[in-house]
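Q: Convert this sequence to structure tokens.
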Amino acid sequence: MHDAQAFTSILATLVAIIIATKLAGALAQRVGQPAVLGELLAGVLLGVSALGLIEPGDVVLSTFAELGVLILLFEIGLHTEIAALGRVVREAAAVGLVGVILPFAGGYAVALLLGLTTIQAIVCGAALTATSVGISARVLSDLGQLHTSEGRVVLGAAVFDDVLGLVILSVVTSLAAGTTVSLPSIAVKTLVAFGFIAAALVLGRVLAPPLFRVIERIEIAGTLGLFGLAFAFTMAWLADRAGSALIIGAFAAGLVLHATSQRTLVERATTEIGHFFVPVFFAFVGASVDIRTLADTGILLIGVLLTVVGIVGKFLAGYA
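A:
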């Protein structure tokens, strides 16, 4: 009986997410904003800040959300040509690197000025280095800027930031635990993180075309789309095992399949599934924010200052 109640509760929450994200997304577009902003705000409304329908610790919804961001990055990869991304790699790397250094330095300095400890200041700085590839990609897509040179620079820089952010996170975690961190260990982590992307793209472009030609011969409806998703999830798993991010693996899978003749069918199936899972991800992100904590003036001050530093740092990175 308890299991049945838990299941119906999940169903009711999913219905609320679907209705709220679609209505809020449409409203956001009406006022000239990307739909993703409405979906995030819908999550805030449904989460701990207001209605409490979405629990940040809910394992089922968390899993759906993780699937949503993987599918989103796979979709973006399917839309992106490796050669086009390669043409802006220097600009993207420059923007990404500066977009890590400036926010980190600013966050560290602000935290120290506010009286936080050195480790706490480092954590604050590290938190400002990452750029959500999922949100960046969705905003660019909603605004129709994904295929512009500027859009590719932003997307490339976001991927660079996320990979470098993982390295920084692992270093900060070690420092917080009192473990000694050496330059060689940092270099190895960095090489592994970026090396996975290079290896995945090279090997994937060799192995994927013949593999999907064989899969295409299976005359069962939906086979190509499902195998495309299986390929993306496998790449995501391999990325995680290599010390990179799951979403980087899914994005790399999309880049690889972009060059295959089966891309259109895979993309169509992925997009249809994504219509359900992707809004769950953004709603879950919004639901995880507890705006009630901002009633504490100390937390509000730290939050506002770090937000300003993060925005200014990322904005200035564009001039790199």
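The mean pLDDT is 83.
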